[in-house]
Amino acid sequence: MAKTLLSIEDLEVTFRVPDATGQSRRLVKAVRGVSLHVARGEVLGIVGESGSGKSTVARTIVGLNQRTAGTIKVAGRELTVTRGSAARAGVQMVFQDHASTLNPFQTVGRILDDVMRVAQPGRSAAERRATAQQLMSRIGLDVSALERRPSSFSGGQRQRISIARALTAEPRLLLCDEPTSALDVSVQAQILALLETLKRDGLTMVFISHNLAVVRQVADRIAVMYAGLIVEQGPAAELIEAPTHPYTRALVDAAPLLTKRGSLLAQSKDLRMTRDISVAVHGCPFANRCPRADTACSALPPLAEVKRDWSSRCHHPVLDDGGNDSRELLAVVGARGRS
Ligand SMILES: Nc1ncnc2c1ncn2[C@@H]1O[C@H](COP(=O)(O)OP(=O)(O)OP(=O)(O)O)[C@@H](O)[C@H]1O
Ligand code: SF4
Ligand SMILES: [Mg+2]
């Protein structure tokens, strides 16, 4: 079995936020006992609707959020809660909002050079320059891009530059948080193609998106999050083909269908919720939207193995692929999700 690079055990992240009156604070359990393992060279996709805790997991790995409990190890070594710990362990992150992460006053060459001077202090200016030029070709931009500022590029090109900046540190783990969400579908496809190339080169990645169709293009395995919990986890292709958790089934039915070239075959139904789902702490958090719910669901189900290397957090997982209940489910989710 491939060696584990990233190992997260029982991660909990709780935020204190002002309540509706603004007079006192309430606790939001954004991540509830999440355990994840990513093998070297593997791409793990994390999907789930808005507010399910995906970004909080990634931000906690790189120290941008503080964990309440749990351990995070990279190559067997535990990360501390300080910000530089993940970077020293070879973890880099690419964000959705590339505009705010690139200094608008610096040229691309300078942006990349600043990272390299910290990450590889022993290298000469000429070596760093050569690496920057190689990176431009790797992300599909001309070397002249090094002389320009971020504002002179399109959104898709800026996201490539963000990826190049992460790569300058020669990461062994790249966390991508919604790297294509702000982009047009055709530009999305170019970024996905770039990430697929990095995957072929052996880079280990965690790819976060609320869009299952996008995740399926790059992920080997998928973890589905709902209300701060992993509700299903398994091999990407099989999980999308025959999801066992009612929530995953709803996501699959609602996903836009993308061809490999990135053209949209069908538009997604909007599963994003308008309310804070992370406050549902008792029983199965999906119970108020699930047509399979019964009295057993007032107890939180464990994440239990349903097939080899495949687990589901449901008292009544769907273990065959027959029937039309996912369509029925989608109707229920759609109706309640819009309320
Ligand atoms: N810094 C913070 N302070 C307080 N609450 C937060 C903070 N960051 C996240 N949250 C809350 O934690 C929960 C999970 O948020 P998170 O951003 O991880 O969700 P997400 O799955 O990434 O959603 P999206 O798809 O919209 O990016 C939400 O209820 C959110 O409001
Ligand atoms: S545990 Fe019950 S409510 Fe939760 S997803 Fe399974 S069937 Fe639905
Ligand atoms: Mg997010």
General description of the model:
- By secondary structure, the protein is α/β, with parallel strands linked by helices.
- It folds into two domains: 4-90 and 171-337, 3-Layer(aba) Sandwich (Rossmann fold); 106-162, no CATH class.
- Helix content is 32%, strand content 24%.
- The protein has helices at residues 54-61, 84-88, 98-101, 108-119, 125-138, 155-168, 185-200, 212-218, 236-241, 246-254, 325-337, and strands spanning 4-18, 25-39, 43-47, 69-74, 77-78, 91-94, 173-177, 204-209, 221-226, 229-235, 257-258, 264-266, 304-307, 310-312.
- Strands 6-7-8-3-9-10-14-13 form an eight-stranded mixed sheet, sandwiched between helices.
- Strand 13 and strand 14 form a beta hairpin.
- Helix 4 runs parallel beside helix 6.
- It is globular, with a radius of gyration of 21 Å.
- The termini are far apart.
- Iron/sulfur cluster binds at residues 246, 284, 286-287, 290, 292-293, 297, 301, 314-316.
Which characteristics define this entry?
2 domains; four-stranded antiparallel β-sheet; binds iron/sulfur cluster; eight-stranded mixed β-sheet; binds magnesium ion; 32% helix; 11 helices; Rossmann fold; disordered C terminus; globular; binds adenosine-5'-triphosphate; 339 residues; alpha/beta; 24% strand
